[in-house]
Amino acid sequence: MSGHDYSDVSRAIDMATGGRRHRRLRRTAWSRELVRETRLSGSDLIWPIFVRDGGGEAEPVPSMPGVFRHSVNGCVEAARKADDLGIPVIALFPFNDTTRRDENGTEALNPNNLVCRAVRAIKAAVPQIGILCDVALDPYTSHGHDGILRDGHVDNDLSVEALCQQAIVQADAGCDIIGPSDMMDGRVALIRAALDGQGLRDTMIMSYAAKYASVFYSTFRDAVGSSGVLKGDKRTYQMDMGNGDEALREAAQDIAEGADMIMVKPGLPYLDILVRLTQEFNIPCFAYQTSGEYSMMMAAAERGWLDGDAAMMEVLTAYKRAGAAGVLTYFAPRAAEALRQRGV
Ligand code: PBG
């Protein structure tokens, strides 16, 4: 140390820190591995998949690079892949063009609709995989809202009635987890009662408890064919971005109404909400890494502005560190593959 009194500096640092040097544990790969607090695994992931009518090749969703709309057979293949990779659950979302949409979203109640057919096909071929189905009318309505309109307003009680019916047809088809994403009041209680009334007591409910009116759903709406059709916005039912305490009230109520699991959505801009809910409630709480979060990262990676794999792992780990029991993510197969290669 050319002329520099190194030992003086070292002694001063030892005095100031009491000899506690945090870098000691970070010095080698093995010691970092040894003391890591949060570890992601394939079993933490839920993979959202888009299903479309007809056969043939998977159809790319341009605004979500690496994401496709699959035929029913393609969904069965995806379920096999998920199972091989140790992903425990897939979430199914239907793409419907305008011909299958109407004012009241009646196709949602059809026991032979696209989602129900996909659920049956997957359950027949890969019975060991869990299936989650969204409960909301937006893939089926001509106006793109999650519920039924009355005098131009999304009517809560009218919508809940339809949502209960939608939950029943999906659970009847073999769906394991009902995911009410509609944000109507009282829907968890009424869906639970409706399922129990049909003897579907084992069907779980993962409620989108804190779902915010967000710009980060934009590319999902492309994927399900809702972007062009949505009239207005969803702020009369989805939560306001400025509110945190309200998320606690929403979650408490969904749990009281019978939710088995809850969810925060979107994930990254609402990590604080995830922390608050996981600390407050002793129930599995999931994060939804939404389409917009996915597309944003993919776009930056495509430009070479981010290392895509590294960004994916960093953000997925952040959800777990914040307390999530698991993450719904379009990265699921890619992340599970990367984890497998590392032998995790
Ligand atoms: C439907 C629903 C949406 C998402 C999941 N379920 C969109 C919305 O509420 O407009 C978003 C998923 C994503 O962006 O990845 N209610």
Strand percentage, roughly? 15-25%
CATH topology: TIM Barrel
Rg (CA only): 22 Å
* CATH hierarchy, class: Alpha Beta
User: What's the main sheet like?
Assistant: 8 strands, parallel, barrel
> Architecture, CATH level 2?
Alpha-Beta Barrel
Mean pLDDT over the full residue set: 96
InterPro entries: ALAD (IPR001731), ALAD_AS (IPR030656), Aldolase_TIM (IPR013785)
Pfam families: ALAD
GO molecular function: porphobilinogen synthase activity; zinc ion binding
EC number: 4.2.1.24
Can you describe this structure?
The protein is an alpha/beta fold and 344 residues long. The chain has one domain: TIM Barrel (Alpha-Beta Barrel), CATH 3.20.20. It is 40% helix and 16% strand. It has 12 helices and 12 strands. Helix 3 (72-85) crosses helix 4, helix 4 (114-125) runs parallel beside helix 5 and helix 5 (156-173) crosses helix 6. The longest helix is centred in the middle third of the chain and has 18 residues, at 156-173. It is globular and about 80 Å long. The two termini are 43 Å apart. The model has no long low-confidence stretch (mean pLDDT 96). Ligand PBG is lined by residues 134, 136, 138, 146, 181, 217, 220-221, 234, 290-292. Homooctamer.
Question: What features would you highlight for this structure?
Answer:
single chain; 344 residues; alpha/beta; TIM Barrel; eight-stranded parallel barrel; 12 strands; globular; binds ligand PBG; Aldolase_TIM
